[in-house]
Amino acid sequence: MTELKRLITFSVVLLLLLAFPLLSDRFYVQFVSKILIMAIFAGSLNLLVGYTGLVSLGHAAFFGIAGYILALYSPHTGAAGFWSSLFLSVSGAAVLALLIGTLVLRTSGIFFIMATLAFAEMLFFLFHDTSVAGGSDGIYIQARPVLSMAGWQPLDLADYVHFYYLVLFFALSLAALVRALLRSPFGHVIIGIRLNEQRMGSLGFDTFRYKLVCFVIAGALAGLAGYLSAVQFGVVNPEMLGWHLSGSVLMMVILGGMGTLMGPVLGAFSLMMLEDVFQSVTKHWQLLTGMVVILVALYLPRGLAALLPKWVAGDRRCTSSAARSPNRADQTNV
Which of 48, 155, 182, 230 is the most buried (most CB within 10 A)? Predict the structure, then answer.
């Protein structure tokens, strides 16, 4: 019965999302596209914070570097190829995550948080204070990448409706990927690491290697979000690497609900809607937004996803099953 409810709910939501561009104007379609991109970004961080127990304040580094790779790869006249630029951007973010993760994962707790922040800030000032990629002004992308398959161009990324459907496809694909990952033996291991890393190590699991793989996957997914953001706005700048963005996406995860599949979506939607509404009311909109986040943290410590049924929110079912039987992960090696 639960599976039937989930299927019906998913079908209704999917139909609404597919019909949304036909029922709304340009501004709202672009705004929802931005929300979906940030949901992808928040989902990548949730993989670290919510499921592996790694709180990062430098996650924007992977978001921003992917955007910069697209901008540097794009020709000054004409457009880059979608598939090649996407591959380079996501791969670049994954390689950066591998390099940073190899170093920062040797720390834990507050030291891990500060180490991730330090690496992100080094990248921020590298792009901000030098002429490597336009300095503080950033780089403009003259033309959107061309998405073609064997000479056929199914989508025009300069068209806001086509771009919306592309982002929706990636958001749904990410949700399916994360769901499958968490239900796999690998997913049970990383959840077990969050619950009790010492115990998982005593069972023979190489916890450092598992955390590193998870860190790289999260970095690659953040790179995907950064690539889509650069395509949407046609410009990249050092703010995409800054700690403000890392803090904002962390708030989305906390607001929506850590360790839930729907949490990042709810967090991204709620925070961006709050910002949009409060900005129209007062210039002190950050104060009002902060108050709402504090109230949610106090009275809904599990986030907004706690208001939804578990079968909708994708609550910590995998976490609880891993807690009851960590040996379900078998002896999977990465």
Answer: 230
Largest alpha-carbon pair distance within the chain? 59
- If you write DSSP's letter for every residue of 186-239 in order, what string do you get? HHHHHHHHHH-HHHHHHTT--HHHHHHHHHHHHHHHHHHHHHHHHHHHSEE-GG
| This prediction's pTM | 0.89
191: tokens are 């959840």
Say if CB 305 and CB 266 are below 8 A apart. Answer: yes
How does pLDDT run along the chain (334 residues), one tens digit per residue? 577 777 888 888 889 999 999 888 899 999 999 999 999 999 999 999 999 999 999 999 999 999 999 999 988 877 888 999 999 999 999 999 999 999 999 998 899 999 999 999 999 999 988 887 888 888 998 889 998 887 788 888 989 999 999 999 999 999 899 989 999 999 999 999 999 889 999 989 999 999 999 999 999 999 999 999 999 999 999 999 989 999 999 999 999 989 888 889 999 999 999 999 998 888 888 899 889 888 988 888 888 888 877 656 555 544 444 444 444 444 444 4
CA distance 29 to 214: 32
